[in-house]
Structure formats: structure tokens, C-alpha cells
Amino acid sequence: MTAIRHPLRPLLIASLAALLFAFTATRANAETPPAPASSTAAPVATAHPQVEFKTSQGDFVIELFPDKAPKTVANFLQYVKDGFYDGTVFHRVIPGYLIQGGLYTRELRPKRTQPPIPDEANNGLSNLRGTVAAARGPDPDSATAQFFVNVVDNPRLDYVGNQSGMTWGYAVFGKIVRGMEVVDKIDNLPTGPQGPFIGDVPRPLVIIESAKLIGEAAHPTQEPVSPVTGQAPASTPASKKKPGTKH
Fold first, then answer.
1. Of 54, 55, 94, 134, which is the most buried if we count CB atoms within 10 A?
2. Does the pLDDT value for residue 35 go beyond 60?
3. 216-237 per-position pLDDT tens digit
4. CB contact at 8 A, 95 and 224
């Protein structure tokens, strides 16, 4: 008997094969797990805390760098939160160099401070115009409450080496982000001797009326790291031309 070839059979076979292929591909795609999220996504930048100083000559804002000088920033913020700076003065102004304050009262008497902290001058930050650094005595690890603002670029105050206090430098821990014109105004005040100091005291005295954290940093979710290190109290600096803990 001669077999009869059906003309539609090849078309049916081709159609079934196409349907089977499409079903298999769809199922494979459905069973393929999604690609995991990239683990190299850039971290969200954390805003630096800022402190607003209100003074008798005007206001300015300091942005702090806890990523570069964590101990110095923690120390500074503790004094701010304790209200230590309120009522203190800028007792030292050297035109074209720096303004310094944060320890003496209106009567030019020093306030009692917390123990000194380690020097963090070797943090890659330079004492450029507008930066804020910790004042200290001849011992690098003698900074307490005093700070100074560089009115000009002062690279000679930067870290050079750990051979001595002269080469160790002064730790930059912030910068003026608003109100640098107020710093310049203070820098241009006449100066002279007053109280226990033989010179460089601005006239009139520049009073720090208040120092307050601003923004979200004013409401932390956890306690700050303690800056206390247990070193001996800071000694009096030997040179007038270096930002020390005493005038």
C-alpha cells in the first residue's frame, strides 16, 4: 500500500516546535533570579557639624571636620555643648596673622578646662586663611579649649614632623563657612596691653556671646565620643608668635 502524505503535517510539526521553544524560553527567564544590587554603590555623604558663634563684633559659622580631627572636634563640641565659650573673649589679635580666644573671661581670667587632648596636626589639613585650629603650648598634646582662626595662609603652622613641639604643628579641625568678614573686622581692631597681657589684646574686647550647634547636629542620636585623655594640664607657651594655651 502506498502511504498518503498529508500536506499540512510539516506545518503542524513546525508550529509545535516553535510553541515548545517559546514556552521553554519563557520558563527559563521566569526561573532566573534577578541580579543582586551592586555592592559598590557610593556611600551617602555625612554632613559636617557646624557651630555658630555670636560675638560683639558680629557672627560667624565654623564647619567642623570630624573625619580629619575626631578627637579635636569631639573636644571642641563638648565645650560648645557645655556652654563653656559663652562669655569668653578673643583676647589675642595679631593683624595679618590670626585671632585667638576661647579661654579667658571678660575680666581676662582663665576658665577651668577639661584635660588636654592629643595633637592631630598630622591630618593633611593646612593652616590656610579661614581655617580654625587648636591652640596649645610647647607640648603638642596640650590643647584644651582655646582655638584660633587663620586670617592669612600660615603653612609654617602645619605639621612637619614629630621631632619637637616646634615641628609638630597645630591641628586644623574646621573652617569658617560664613562670616569671614567678621573675622577680618576683629583682625583690624587696635590692640595693646591689658590685664595680664603685655600686648595683642583687642580694643574693645571681643565678647563671644554664644556658641551653638546648628542644624541636625544639634540633636544627636547618641552620645559623642569622650575627648578626655588624661594628660597633664597644658603649660604656658614659650613664644608669643605661636598660638598657645596662654597669651
1. 134
2. no
3. 555 544 444 444 433 333 333 3
4. no
Can you give the pLDDT at residue 167?
A: 85
Q: Which amino acid is at 125?
A: L
Residue 149: its H or E element: strand 147-150
H or E element, residue 60 = strand 58-64
Nearest CA among 229, 123, 206 for reference residue 172: 123
Buried b (16+ CB within 10 A) or exposed e, 40-53: eeeeeeeebbbbbb
| β-strand pairing of 98-101 with 89-94 | antiparallel
CB-CB contact of 130 with 174 (8 Å): no
Judge whether 98 and 90 are in contact, CB under 8 Å: no
The residues spanned by each domain of the chain are 50-217
CATH (residue range 50-217): 2.40.100.10
Query: Per residue, what are the HEC states of 96-117?
Result: CCEEEECCECCCCCECCCCCCE
What pLDDT score does 242 carry?
63
Instruction: Tell me how far apart the alpha carbons of residues 174 and 56 are, in angstroms, rounded to a whole number.
Output: 22
* Residue showing cell 568678614: 181
